[in-house]
Amino acid sequence: MTAQTPPTPPFRDPHLPFAKRIDDLLARLTPDEKVGFLHQYAPAVERLGVAAFRTGQEALHGVAWMGPATVFPQAVGLGATWNEDLVRRVGDAVSKEVRAMRARDDRVGLNVWSPTVNLLRHPLWGRNEEGYSEDPKLTSAIATAYTRGLRGDHPTYWRTAPVLKHWLAHNNETGRDISSSSVRPRVLHEYDLRAFRETVEAGAVAGVMPAYNLVNGRPNHVSPYLREHLRTWTDEDLLVCSDAGAPSNLVDSEHYFDTHEEATAASLLSGVDSFTDHGTDGSTIVARVQGALDQGLLTEADVDAAVRRQLSVRFRLGEFDPAHDPHTGTEDFDTPAHRALAQEAAEQAVVLLKNDTGLLPLAHDTRLAVVGLLADECKLDWYSGTLIHRSTPLEGVYERFGAERVEFAEGVDRVRLRTAQGAYLHVPLVDVADEVRGAEGALDPALLAGRTDLPPLITDDTGTELALVDWGEGVLTLRAPDGRYLSVADDGYVRASADQPGGWVVQETFRLEPHENGHLLRHIGTGRHVSVAADGVKVAEEGGEIFELVIAERGEDAVARVAQAADVVLVVAGNDPHINGRETEDRTTLQLPAQQQRLLRAARAANPNTVLALVSAYPYTVDPADLPALLWTAHGGQAAGTALARVLAGDVSPAGRLPQTWYAADADLPDLLDYDVIGGRQTYLYFEGTPLFPFGHGLSYASFVYGHLTARVELDAVHVQFTVTNTGDVTADEVAQLYTSAVSPSVPRPFSELIAHRRVTLEPGEAAVLSFEVPLSAFEFWDVARGAHRVEPGGYDLLVGASSEDIRLRTTVTLTGEPAAPRAVLQHGLDAADFDEQSGGEIVDRTKVTGDAVTPTQGGTAELTYRHCDFGAGVTEVTVEVAGEGVVELSLDGGPALAQLALPAPASGPYDYTTLGAGIVAEGVHDVHLKLRGPLRLAHVGFSG
Fold first, then answer.
1. What is the residue-averaged pLDDT of the chain?
2. Whole-angstrom Cα distance, residue 938 to residue 679?
3. Tell me, what's the pLDDT at 435?
4. Tens digit of pLDDT for each residue in 724-783?
5. Where are the beta strands (DSSP E) in 594-731?
6. d(C-alpha 644, C-alpha 623), whole Å
7. What is the pTM of this model?
């Protein structure tokens, strides 16, 4: 007899809909197997032939952490291209490299954690490099393009499954796991949610990752917005993956829950489907989920809902249909096309900020001095892959202008460190192979250890001359003549061992601390001082060596020497993405570090034909007055130097545009934790000062004329058309930008707001007709009186130009909209957070599950205003729902207090609300003013009578 082949289970049948197949597989999994799927590293189920699965593969601007890959410009640089087609092609290339790398290393995951759509509200945010723009429209346009590239074009099977980071209102590293972003409803709906919403609605997003921070007093990992908003934007099952360690933070650092079982259950019920915690070991999360089930905090159905969403992603990735997955055989890796695309992206990201005298482009026979700390660097960031190809600005200039026409001075201070005994620190000479950090790939590069195969530093009579760089705020790096940076490994010895500063805790930075007649050298990573021992130089808890800094050459002297003999000086300045402004560390100033300011002054003093190229992950404040030309580019990936040189030479006309405002001074910035872009007058939307360079700014080697603007309102859209003509003598790109501004708004609205843009390539004399269909929803604002979006009737200016301030054409359209109505306070009362204006207060959680309340900041005094409240024929009583301790005072139209409601010292917790009442007399429409005093929480105000 012949044994019968067992029937194919429905979950393996590619002809069935995914939903039925997921139902079948879920039914076959045991409760324990389903719980195991909730950890980032979901184990295999061998009896069903289901493979292990990992959520999370970093791919922000190329495949990261898994070894060599094509490295594209940083995300903020991709944002600066303002080019959706380019960014889609970058996403396409990255996803193909993910597939190709996975074919040879199954540690590479297909669930990619990118892009980052956090808005670049504050330029001191350490992770500025990860976002695209301060503007939600531009951010969503670029993010949508990238996710479409990552997803691929197949209607059924996705090449990779993109997860958006980081939900929600997350722009600070300072106290990032314990700080709360106070986000009023208008900012929430018009700003922070909008970038996520428009990207999700575009249909190429597999999920989101909640951020470490709290929003309105509630951790993002238990945010009700995941249910109330995110999951309503699409019919797709979205996979919500926690950020690393964040589930434990709910108890350990945030103290939001008493037990991990409660925290895990609350996260799962809020919508978190995959828990990234405790590395590759899922046992802790499994135990917490099981504990929550045993305590009745969760049901099996709750677990099933989360597992279903994970399986939905896995089916879309073709895991269960290898014979039908069109992406299985993808081999595109480091192809000529990818290399060309990396260069194209780097070229399109360059922003020409100033070119007053026409110094750029440079003639082909220009004698150049290339100087600066980043002149011969191709810097990577935390989310970069390992470089296969590398081009620094100096190398690019050598290649384009000829090495014989170029002189170079890095501008480092060359120093020796002498001990109190008269000996000098010495780097032993060794003959060992170079080793690039992370070249072998690592699921968690934070765990990569420093090298211990090299001898530690010693002392001798002559010492080694070291290259010292002060990256700002006294944070130094020291580099040996062979190019290796001084670093400290786990054994505590100081070695010249690192190819670049890097790592989760950077081990290559030091600080010179004045002490007696010299300096102590503190190693920042360990917090310990450098000491000299018989077996080598090491860090020690006590007994640091006192060093004298012996300067062989100042960097500015070397810069001046080469600058004075050149036709043009190119100063390349900026940041190291691992130092002073990165994940875990915000910047403290917009200022260029002092050492780089000195180099720039030396270059300008020696040669007025000085071009400054800023290569940085964020904006700087610089004085452009004495500079004939100024450029900015983000760290541009593997082709950065070639791209910059081609722009300088005029092979490419620059057409990058600033994706965020460049402020003139630190005083122009709000507090880092002030998330109220409306009340705080933040970003180009509301900023009332004069920026150094405005949002959307960027110059060209060509000139462009705009004309023939027409606009008409038709059905649910405004149709706008105009022409752009290249009146210059070179082929160039122009980024045409369309903004709107409400003519007579009833509430504060943006001075101008981007509603559309297009990057076009035009030959000399060529004209293009650009047409836009702008949905009426682009003119909406969030009406707190009705709790919904609304288009206000009236006039709206349409502004066309080359930046938010360089407006060339304008016209006005009239929209019918929906008329305003006073607040129906008799029927609905007032939710405390729905104020029109406030001062001194912050929004906090009404309960741990849902809702908002308002509390005075640090228990002081808060003032809240609610406009146009309709009391009808009259009210006789006001009630307030409050918790805590303090006084609520009510007045109308700025008049005297009509009621004071006092809550005595609380006998219970912050979520135990009491309703207090008082008599008042009011009729008609008035503005309600509330004053809150003391550490109370106000949730709701009601009126009756």
1. 96
2. 20
3. 65
4. 999 999 999 999 999 999 999 999 999 999 999 999 999 999 999 999 999 999 999 999
5. 610-615, 629-633, 704-714, 717-726
6. 22
7. 0.97
Residue 385 has pLDDT above 60, yes or no: yes
Answer whether 533's CB lies under 8 Å from 339's CB: no
d(CA 445, CA 734): 40
User: Considering only 275-284, 442-451, 541-550, which range has the smallest mean pLDDT?
Assistant: 442-451
DSSP 204: -
Q: Which of 838, 887, 892 is nearest to 865 (CA)?
A: 838
Tokens 């709000």 identify what position? 670
Task: Please name which of 893, 892, 900 lies closest in space to residue 932, comparing C-alpha atoms.
Answer: 900
pLDDT digits (tens, 9 = 90+) for 301-332: 999 999 999 999 999 999 999 999 999 999 99
Which 8-state DSSP code applies to residue 666?
G
**Alpha helices, DSSP H, located in 241-282:** 246-252, 260-270
Q: In the prediction, which pLDDT does 450 show?
A: 85
Using only the alpha carbons of the chain, give its radius of gyration.
30
Q: What is the mean pLDDT of residues 390-400?
A: 98
CB under 8 Å, gap of 24 or more: what pairs does 904-907 form? none
Which helix (H) or strand (E) covers residue 352, if one does? Answer: strand 351-355
Q: Is the distance from CB of 386 to CB of 68 less than 8 angstroms?
A: yes
Regarding predicted confidence, which is higher, 443 or 596?
Answer: 596
Peptide bond into 501 cis (omega under 30): no
Give the C-alpha distances (Å, rounded to integers) separating 196 from 119, 213, 695.
10, 17, 21
The residue ranges of DSSP E strands in 518-617, in sequence order, are 518-523, 528-533, 536-540, 546-553, 568-574, 610-615
304 in active site? no
pLDDT digits (tens, 9 = 90+) for 509-539: 999 999 988 999 999 999 999 999 999 999 9
Amino acid letter, residue 708: H
What integer pLDDT is reported at residue 552 of this predicted model? 97
CB 222 within 8 Å of CB 250:
yes
C-alpha span between 936 and 901 (Å, rounded): 12
Contact in structure between 319 and 46 (CB atoms under 8 Å): no
Q: Who contacts 188 (Cβ-Cβ below 8 Å, separation ≥6)?
A: 169, 782
Supply the pLDDT for residue 88: 98
Give, in order, the Cα–Cα distances in Å from 748 to each of 185, 212, 444, 525, 751. 14, 31, 46, 46, 9
Reported confidence tier of residue 434, pLDDT bands at 50, 70, 90 = low
Q: Check 177, 237, 243, 845 and give the catalytic one.
A: 243
CB-CB contact of 691 with 651 (8 Å): no
3-state DSSP call for residue 3?
Answer: coil
The 10s digit of each residue's pLDDT in 662-678 is 999 999 999 999 999 99
For residue 554, give the 3-state DSSP assignment.
Answer: coil
3-state secondary structure of 892: strand
Q: What is the DSSP letter of 52?
A: P
Q: Judging by beta carbons within 10 Å of its beta carbon (0-12, 13-18, 19+), is residue 460 exposed, middle or buried?
A: exposed
The SS3 call for residue 314 is helix
Q: Which of 247, 221, 228, 243 is nearest to 189 (CA)?
A: 228
The confidence score (pLDDT) of residue 439 equals 63
Q: Is 351 in contact with 656 (CB distance < 8 Å)?
A: yes
How high is the pLDDT of residue 856?
Answer: 98
**Dist CA 554 CA 556 (whole Å):** 5
pLDDT at 367: 98
The answer to whether the beta carbons of residues 794 and 815 sit under 8 Å apart is yes
Spatial separation of the C-alpha atoms in residues 120 and 134, rounded to whole Å: 4
End-to-end CA distance of the chain: 88
Residue type, position 836, single letter: D
pLDDT score of 276? 98
Distances in Å between the alpha carbon of 483 and those of 62, 434, 468? 26, 10, 12
User: Which pLDDT tens digit goes with each residue over 617-654?
Assistant: 999 999 999 999 999 999 999 999 999 999 999 999 99
Q: Judging by beta carbons within 10 Å of its beta carbon (0-12, 13-18, 19+), is residue 877 exposed, middle or buried?
A: middle
